[in-house]
Amino acid sequence: MSELHIEGLHKTFGDTVALAGADLAVAEGELVAVLGPSGCGKTTLLRCVAGFERPDGGSITVAGRRIEHLPPQARRVGVVPQEGALFPHLSVGRNVAYGLHGAGRGGRVAEVLDLVGLDGYARRMPHELSGGQRQRVALARAMAPKPELILLDEPFSALDAGLRQSLRGEVAAALRAAGATAVLVTHDQDEALSLADRVAVMREGRIVQFAPPAEVYRSPVDPWTASFVGDAVWLDGDVDGDTAATAVGDVAVEGPDGPARLLLRPEQLRLSEGAPNATVSAVEYFGHDALVTLEFANGVRLRSRVLGGAPVAGQSVSVAVDGAARAFAR
Question: Where is the ABC transporter domain (predicted)?
């Protein structure tokens, strides 16, 4: 079983604590995204699993085997670095074959190149490829030895936005077609939410939430996670049962009674057909949607995500809340 279990992982660099007891369990065939801001420890976590750093404490188990004491080449872990890091003097086929041994190398190279959509590219040189193609070659090289685990270190960060979006889906499809167990390290929320089976949100060297993407987005464990994963709209209220009294009226809630900070996502603030209760003060238009700043009579300002046609600044609109807010005690 190609599972990954990390327990109580610690790592310091001088006075800097990079990992402070990180725990993570990845199931066989699962694609997990480790998501967090710069400096949270996510890259150190990946490097410890890969064998590029030795942890100060804790354990790393892959497929039932403790590996934290082993050198990288003995771990059966494949790594896809940020910019592919292909050997420029070797052809695509020889890059993918690097580290393979035995008579079946050619067949395995063809198999993984086909899996990543690069059938027929074996004789090409890296400089003849686009950025996205180079990353797919790097993935094929990591997959070729049939490792127990594949680690992807921000593999799309150097690509432009359009290519990044299309390549994400191709890489995820290739990993799932191979039945690979994989961990993707990223600071990109869209990347984590759209690709992963589960998302591990990391902060200050620890995993603070580990759940399916929808749960992380809809039910974050604390205000920091709520603000980090997606756009957050905050509103003060007093919770009584399943309703909170707020400056913009009663709002359905999930959470403890009493004074609270209410989390809404911008798409929950819906422009409706009712009597106007707010004024549009600003519009940020993105084509597929728009972020609309709404000002209420009492001075409260909230932001709404609107699909399709956007209102114009100065327009009076009716605003309704769709679904329940998540309440955090204050």
Answer: 4-229
